[in-house]
Amino acid sequence: MRLAVALLLVAGPLAAQADSLNRAFDLERRGNYGAAVIAYRAVLKNRPADVSAILGLERSLQPLNRTAEMVPELSTALAVNPSATALYGVAVRTYGAAGMSDSLRRAVDRWAQLAPADETPYREWGNALLARRDRTGARSAYLAGRQQLGQPTALAPELAQLAVLEGDYATAAREWLLAIRKLPGYRSGAVVTLRPTPDAQRAAVLKVLQDDGSPDAQRLDAELRARWGDPIGGFERLVLVLPADPVESRDLLRQFTEALRGNPAPAYRQAMGRALEAMAQRSNGAQRSRLQLDAAQAYLDGGDRASARRMLASLAGDGSTSAALSASASGTLLRLLVDEGKMDEAERSLGQYRGVLSAQEMAMLTRRVAMGWARAGKLDRAEALAATDSSVEGLALRGQLRLFQGDIADAVELLRAAGPYAGTREQATARTSLLALLQPIEEDSLPALGMAFLALERGDTTSAAAGLASLGAGRPRNRGGAELLLLAGRLEAARGQAPAAEKLFRAAVDTTAPATAPAALLELGRLLAGSGRGGEAVPVFEQLILDYPRSALVPQARRALDEAKGAVPQ
Amino acid sequence: MCLGCVSRRDFLRVAAVVPTIPSVMRVRGWARADWLLIPMDDAQAEHLKAYGHTFRAIQRGVKAEWLLNYRGGSFLLPSDAAVARDAALNGITVEGLSDAAVTQIRGEIATSNMDAVPLEKAPKVAVYVPPFAAPWDDAVTMALNYAGIEYDKLWDIEVVEQGLKTYDWLHLHHEDFTGQYSKFYLNYAGAPWLAEMVAKNREVARQLGYANVPALKKAVAQKISAFVERGGFLFAMCTATETLDLALAAENVDIAASYADGTPMEPNAGARLDWSKSLAFQNATLELSPTTPVYSDIDGHQVNSADRRQQLGTFTIFGFSAKIDPVPTMLVQNHRDVIPDFYGLTTSFTRKTLKPGVTVLADETGAPWVKYIHGEKGQGTWTFYGGHDPEDPQHQIGDAPTDLTLHPHSPGYRLILNNVLFPAAKKKELKT
């Protein structure tokens, strides 16, 4: 009984203290920092060295911007328990916030004595000075830590990030190499912080990496080159330092492909193909086949047909390839044949896949072959292939084929029937624009227009622009002439032919074509502003705003006008 | 203006613009309008550009009126094709009014705390801008550029040699007139922008025959003070407010750190300051640390002092009697009374350091500091507005400049533009 009473007597205050701490936590969690501060202080009154309460008090004072206020509690806690290393972190931050440089230094020294092999005291010291924007002091703190610890790689990530803050990217690269040497996981941090290196400093960063010459430096060099516009150069550096272990190699190559992903430029796609091929060489079975197929597609996207064919041939010779993968490979091969203009072979291949591929895949490949025939000038063969396709994509394709024939009436009907859902969003938008262009044209048949669009489909922008310009000039502006001139102008602008584009845009501005004129004025203004003729662009944007105040393009014109006048930062 | 009174040529010019004017004007029969009202309440689509629009109209010789406290401080202009064209180009909301409607408005103004102030002559505006690219933006040049108000840029050489004689209005922003490079010298040592700032300042000090940069800046501050004394309008923001007054008060005292002039701050410098020379402040205590980018206790928020930094709140614009105090009334025209605060190297002004006679235009209720103040010296006036950028409350060094197309209604920026138009007010109408 006596024991039970004694336990109750002890447990009562303990439970009350735990309750006080829980209450403080709860107030803090609810964001009531002012009340949490009071609650934590109440706990510390009874237990001045309670680390949880000290940490809670710090967390609660920080959002109130009152960190410096905890100096008295901290001093008491350190006096009660001077060997509690957890308190020193709080001490460094608090003295830093309070601007108490001498106390801060004493706390760091004491902490370092208690934990002589630990970087943390110096890291916190530097961070506290950085919080006061004292970069020079922070650097001194980190370097003092490095010297005291006798480790040349100590605090390298901190020094690297400090160098980045100061815009000294070469020093940052040097420090990151030290950090990576100690812990390879720092490479991703190095890439992220070095990626924004200004153009003027990139050579210096690469020189640091080349002078170092270690595999770590070469890998970092490769990843940075990939991000700085030289993906093939990056790959060539990486491949030189790939380790013998295939798993490690694949991992490094996979990291490299992350730097290439999402960039559709041919060089990036080719580098992607080479990285995937290298990964395939270090893989087996289905994984190898999948990587070879991905490599083939990347090569094809990058315009390297020979390498794509090589990948597909290798894949074809592999008896272990699954049926699903074979189907994907068939599609890639067919695309390759169409791209190479080998239409007979492509159509023969198509016949071989019947029964192997799904109906949907077959229809997609058939449309691809049909468009290939159209590009080859064999519109009848294209029409024959597309004739039985009643899907919305098929209708859109047939509309395009009719347009290539110059059959405007049928083209408009088919494109309208395809509606806004066929193909990708970009294709749907292009189709809608095409319909807007064709609708004002009253003739049912206009072969010259079909030829211009066919030239465009073949990638012959010069002929397409010339054809559209000639047609537009010869037609009334309100019957499609203005739209044709505008499109011709856009093509010339895309070719970098600014004088020709300017002439065409000016010709497309006509009050009888009020739907086209604002777009032509906006294009003209942008062309002039982009050519360093902002002064000439101003009246063009003004004309758009004043003459066509209801145009949906007015907000864009006002923004462009502000930019041309220098009224807003560009 | 009645249509029967204009020449055929003028009529055709007006008629040609009719299809281009915003719908609100057509709905209200702009073609028959005698006057154009630019509302400045929530009906306005482009508050900031509306100031530039009025400024340009005055420049063209149009006699505008500022309708103080009427619909957020609206502008009234005679109906004019050029005015309508400018409004249409800039997306400014304009309402066409008949003579009768204007008479009704004038009646309302006469019987309320409102007034109509004629705006007759566009002031010639100068902005004090260093010739190097500082890594921070300048709210006033951004506001002037966005509104389309013309201004000249000048710096120490022009101020010292020409004395601002050809200008009506001068703006100062983030300048440090104590010559200590915003006290960033030690914390940003090695930064290319700081190196350029130091080199350019030292070069100009040498060129103009001053021993060091603090001496040059004191001379510039005195020229600016003389400009106000002669009748100039001075508007300053951020740290230019505090350091201008410190430089004036420290005419014969060394308050600069050794990195600026080779000698440390004079012992007991604070006690030797001559506050009779300053514009707005007195009895301030100087910050002694050369590494803390704080100058004195004039600033209430002390943003760069970790232990003294105060949190941002909101500030409230004061109301004034439009008929008795038109000047402060003009300076506070706005469509909002309460505005979120924003930091600057000098964010606010402590009440205890304000000179008697300083007019407080806006403050934070219950706080020991104010935000926006105004006063007179000699024939001229000065207005100080604390903080750096009204739409970027935590503006950091190196941050991108604010894009005002995203803030066309900014009430904080409106206070800046009130200052640009106020010197255009016809002087005989001013009672304070």
Report on this structure.
The complex is a heterodimer of chains A (570) and B (432). Chain A is mostly helical and 570 residues long. Chain A has helices spanning 2-29, 33-46, 51-61, 71-80, 85-98, 101-114, 120-131, 135-149, 156-165, 169-182, 187-194, 199-212, 215-227, 231-240, 246-260, 266-281, 285-301, 305-316, 323-339, 343-353, 359-375, 379-386, 392-405, 408-418, 425-438, 447-457, 461-473, 481-494, 498-508, 517-530, 534-547, 554-565. Chain B has two domains: 3-119, no CATH class; 125-303 and 343-401, Rossmann fold (3-Layer(aba) Sandwich). Helices cover 31% and strands 16% of the residues of chain B. The interface between A and B is medium-sized, with 32 and 38 residues.
| Secondary-structure element string of chain B | HHEHEEHEHEEHEHEHHEHHEHEEEEEH
Using the coordinates above, name the CATH class of the domain at 341-451 in chain A.
Mainly Alpha
In the CATH scheme, the class of the largest domain in chain B would be Alpha Beta
CATH fold category name of the largest domain in chain B? Rossmann fold
H/I helix tally of chain A: 32
Note the overall shape of chain B.
elongated
Oligomer: heterodimer
Structural class of chain A: mainly alpha
Number of strands of chain B: 15
The chain-level mean pLDDT of chain A equals 89
Low-confidence stretches of chain B at least 5 residues in length (pLDDT < 50)?
A: 1-29, 428-432
What's the count of strands of chain A? Answer: 0
Based on Cα principal axes, name the global outline of chain A: extended
Termini of chain B, distance in Å? 33 Å
Integer tally of domains of chain B: 2
- Main beta sheet strand tally, sense and closure of chain B: 10 strands, mixed
Largest sheet of chain A: none
Helix content of chain A: over 70%
What is the overall number of helices of chain B?
A: 13
**Assigned CATH architecture of the domain at 341-451 in chain A:** Alpha Horseshoe
- Radius of gyration of chain A using CA atoms only: 35 Å
